[in-house]
Amino acid sequence: MSLTRRVSTSLPQVIGFANRSFKSLRFPGQSLDSSSSPVLTHGIHVFQCPDAVGIVAKLSDCIASKGGNILGADVFVPENKRVFYSRSQFIFDPVKWPREQMDEDFNNLSKMFNAMRSVVRVPDQDPKYKIAVLASKQDHCLVDLLHGWQDGRLPVDITCVISNHDRGSNTHVIRFLERHGIPYHYLRTTKENKREGDILELVPNTDFLVLARYMQILSGNFLRSYGKDVINIHHGLLPSFKGGNPSRQIVLAGF
C-alpha cells in the first residue's frame, strides 16, 4: 500500500466510519478453517500536528511494529498553513496489540510531533458515537443514511431525527423510524424562527450532528452553543453557493 501526500487548499473531512467488516480477515498464508488463525480487527486513526519531516514514516512504523497493516491513508497539508492532517485505516490482531497499548503507542506518537489532535477508534471495541440527524423535505440522503445504519455500515446510535418538514405517519421514513424505535421530531421553521433553541434541547447528549440535506443554514450562535462537530451531507459545500440548487447556482455564476 502506498501513501500519497497531497496538498489541499481546504481543510479535510477527518471524521469517518468503518464501512467494511474485517472480523473474518486472517493473516496471509493461514488457513481459513484453522482455529489458531488470528481474527483481525479494524481501526481508524485521525492525526493533526505541525507539519514536519518523517510523520508518515513514524505513523506507519507505529502500526507495522505491532503487526498491523494499513489499508488506506489520506494525508493533507493545506497550502496556507504548515499543518499535517491524516486519516489512516488499518487492521490488527487485538491479541498482539491490546487496546490499552494502542492508546499508549498513539499517545507517544502524538507527543513526538506535538499533535493538536490524535484520535484512534476501534469500532468493534469502542462505544458507538451518539448522533442526531437533521433533515428537510427530500428523503434520499436521510434514507441512505438510515439504510447504512441498518446494514451495520454506520456504527453509530441514532438518538433521533429532527426535521422542519412534517412527514405523514404512513410514509417510508416514519414507518422505518417507528420499527427501530428512533424518535422523530417535527419542528416547523420560519424565516424569523429557525427553532435552533428547540434543536439544542433535543441533542444535548450527542457526539455530533449529521445534516442529511437539511435545508436551513445553522447560525454561528447555534454552532457555538452546540460546541461539537456537525457533518453536512450535501453537495453545496462551497460557501459561495449556499442553500438549494447549488449546482444551478454554480452554472449561473459561470463556473
Automatic annotation (TrEMBL):
It comes from the Eukaryota. Residues 44-127 form the ACT domain. One of its GO terms (biological process) is 'de novo' IMP biosynthetic process. InterPro entries: ACT-like_dom_sf, ACT_dom, Formyl_transf_N, Formyl_transf_N_sf, PurU, PurU_ACT. Coiled coil: none annotated. GO terms for molecular function: formyltetrahydrofolate deformylase activity. Keywords: Hydrolase, One-carbon metabolism. This is ACT domain-containing protein. It comes from Quercus rubra.
